[in-house]
Amino acid sequence: MPSAISPRPRYTPNYMLRPFRRRDLNAVDDAIRASLADLALYLPWAVDYNRNTTASFLRDSAASWAEARAFDFTIRNADSPDVHLGNVSVWWVSRPNLVGEIGYWVRTDSTGRGICTEAAANIVQIGFEELGMHRITLRTAMGNVASERVATKLGFTNEGVLRDEVKVGREWLDHTVWGLLEHEWSANKARYTAEEWV
Ligand SMILES: CC(C)(COP(=O)(O)OP(=O)(O)OC[C@H]1O[C@@H](n2cnc3c(N)ncnc32)[C@H](O)[C@@H]1OP(=O)(O)O)[C@@H](O)C(=O)NCCC(=O)NCCS
């Protein structure tokens, strides 16, 4: 199985996922600024956010794609693609063991519409079917009910708590680690299709 994948856009039932470009800086910066109150609850980089954070992310994202380490996608409406709706990513944790991890965020004015679930369902599919992963993990801060709900809807199993896993501002947050195995993905795929997530 390849450790790299094509950078072509992926079309989900309602959205387009594509790799970032340098010229996405304004769109991503706008989305983050409009969502800082929510992002800064759980994501350390959002606490002292400035535009350089996004510029640096875009550089790192291009390098990660080139080195086949991590695959970040911007989520867009296919018919109005100028607005950055959020990020969804899959990255290698262990290539020998075929373990990957996913992460995501959605801009605040677009939450609650199923965007994250659909984007994450497709990144799971990319992880298992394109990258050949055997196990995909996801970490959610304890109390991040929306993210926990996404993990549950996608069929991930709660595998336990990592104590003081991330420092957000001055606060250490516990994380729940979630896992989805290849055979569980296969068993869930018909449901993902029936839900029109993939
Ligand atoms: C977590 C996040 C990505 C969810 O994005 P989203 O596009 O709103 O997610 P979806 O609409 O696909 O699904 C959210 C689910 O959580 C539920 N939910 C949201 N807030 C909730 C709350 N306070 N209590 C209970 N359920 C809640 C929604 O009802 C929905 O479930 P449903 O489909 O069964 O109704 C988004 O809120 C976000 O970016 N938050 C800030 C950053 C973050 O937490 N990133 C994730 C780090 S792991």
Walk me through this protein's architecture.
With 198 residues, the chain is an alpha+beta fold. It has a single domain (11-194), classed as Gcn5-related N-acetyltransferase (GNAT) (Aminopeptidase, 3-Layer(aba) Sandwich), CATH 3.40.630. The protein contains 6 helices and 8 strands, in the order E-E-H-H-H-E-E-E-H-E-H-E-E-H. Strands 1-2-3-4-5-6-8-7 form an 8-stranded mixed β-sheet. The longest helix is centred in the first third of the chain and has 16 residues, at 51-66. The mean pLDDT is 97. Coenzyme A binds at residues 38-39, 42-43, 104-106, 111-117, 140, 144-147, 149-150. The site of coenzyme A has 21 residues, from helix 2, strand 5, helix 4 and helix 5.
Task: Tag the structure with descriptive keywords.
binds coenzyme A; alpha+beta; 6 helices; 198 residues; Aminopeptidase
Strands, helices and their partners?
Blueprint (H helix, E strand, L loop, with lengths): L9 E2 L3 E4 L6 H9 L2 H7 L8 H16 L3 E8 L8 E9 L4 E8 L8 H16 L4 E7 L3 H9 L3 E12 L2 E11 H13 L4
Parallel strand pairs: 5-6
Antiparallel strand pairs: 1-2, 2-3, 3-4, 4-5, 6-8, 7-8
The site of coenzyme A has 21 residues, from helix 2, strand 5, helix 4 and helix 5.
Query: Which bin fits the share of residues in helices?
Result: 25-40%
Distance between the termini: 21 Å
CATH topology: Aminopeptidase
- The structural class is alpha+beta
Brief description of this entry?
By secondary structure, this protein is an alpha+beta fold. 35% of the residues lie in helices and 31% in strands. The protein has a single domain (11-194), classed as Gcn5-related N-acetyltransferase (GNAT) (Aminopeptidase, 3-Layer(aba) Sandwich).
